Amino acid sequence: MNAPEDLTATNAHAESSVRDNRLVVAISSRALFDMGSSHELFEREGLDAYRSFQIEHEDELLKPGVAFPLVQKLLDLNKLSGDVPAVEVILLSRNSGDTGLRIFNAIQHYGLEISRAAFTSGAPTSDYIAPFKADLFLSANAEDVGRALRAGVAAATILPSTAPPRSTEQLRIAFDGDAVIFGDEGERVSREQGLDAFHRNETEMWAEPLSGGPFRGFLSALHRLQAAFPAETSPIRTALVTARSAPAHKRVILTLRRWGVRIDEALFLGGRDKGPFLDAFGADIFFDDSPANVESARRVVATGHVPHGVSNS
């Protein structure tokens, strides 16, 4: 039998391991809350007017933003993970500490377990992603998102959306494949040489794993979190929703197998509109690099644009 001090050391090591594997998501205030009117005021009249407005309305509750339901579901996972939280959400905001007080009032009102934040008074927030060890960064500011992607962090611009919130408790996340989970070499062949050349290339290269895209690390972190729950009762479900079709599907499946990453559903649409399929899957959020795809998707699901790869050149 272990001595008490040995058991304490074992428990401490286990908790440290959970912390090391914690999923960390950084989010901007405009992605978390509806700050459209105050941001328009900032763009129209400048910082002083914005600051005065936020302080004057400090006690008025901010409404949930596009990514609010996603954040709620992420934090709810901590109710299932024991004493050590499995997910941490960090607030990164271009507000000042002064104007950010209204944001923290809203966080407290809605009962969101968010305690860490960086307020940069208008400076880019992306410099703080690495110190916070974030696996994913979501922002309404495309400049900050671009900086994060160039630094090697999974990041997406949260777009305005009229999508209704999902009623299910299960967290559902959908990803495009090329230039999001995978590199964009396939898209480059398709654009430069045509669809036939793309299928020929993927058929010839079926045994060669695809390179990793900007969301490979986040997908792996999400997979580690999924692995803590039985597959049949997991509170997380993922889907690959790609324009690929047979025979280009095989390389994708074998790449994910090589990476040891689980994707619950794989939809090979062969160019069909993704919106109805995302709606049927019940995605809480969808990540895609294509401007055309995200414009279609955001009508039915919360959508993050990943400005990476040849589609955004």
Task: Describe this protein's structure.
This protein is of the alpha/beta class and 313 residues long. The chain has 13 helices and twelve strands. The protein has helices spanning 4-20, 29-32, 36-45, 47-56, 68-76, 101-109, 142-150, 185-193, 195-204, 216-226, 249-259, 275-281, 291-297, and strands at 23-28, 33-34, 63-64, 87-93, 117-119, 136-139, 154-158, 171-175, 236-242, 265-268, 285-288, 303-305. Strands 5-4-1-6-7-12-11-8-9-10 form a ten-stranded mixed β-sheet. It has a two-stranded antiparallel sheet with strand order 2-3. α11 (249-259) links the parallel β9 (236-242) and β10. The longest helix is centred in the first third of the chain and has 17 residues, at 4-20. The termini are far apart. Mean pLDDT is 87; it is low at 1-18.
List the helices and strands and how they pair.
Blueprint lengths: L3 H17 L2 E6 H4 E2 L1 H10 L1 H10 L6 E2 L3 H9 L10 E7 L7 H9 L7 E3 L16 E4 L2 H9 L3 E5 L12 E5 L9 H9 L1 H10 L11 H11 L9 E7 L6 H11 L5 E4 L6 H7 L3 E4 L2 H7 L5 E3 L8
Parallel strand pairs: 1-4, 1-6, 4-5, 6-7, 8-9, 8-11, 9-10, 11-12
Antiparallel strand pairs: 2-3, 7-12
Helix pairs in contact: 3-4, 8-9
Mean pLDDT level: 87
Largest sheet: 10 strands, mixed
Q: Strand order across the biggest sheet?
A: 5-4-1-6-7-12-11-8-9-10
Low-confidence stretches: 1-18
Radius of gyration: 21 Å
Range of helix content: 25-40%
Count every beta strand, where a strand is a DSSP E run of 2 or more residues.
12
Q: How do the helices and strands follow one another from N- to C-terminus?
A: HEHEHHEHEHEEHEEHHHEHEHEHE
* Dominant shape: globular
Number of helices: 13
Intertermini distance? 62 Å
Question: In terms of structural class, how would the helical and strand content be classed?
Answer: alpha/beta
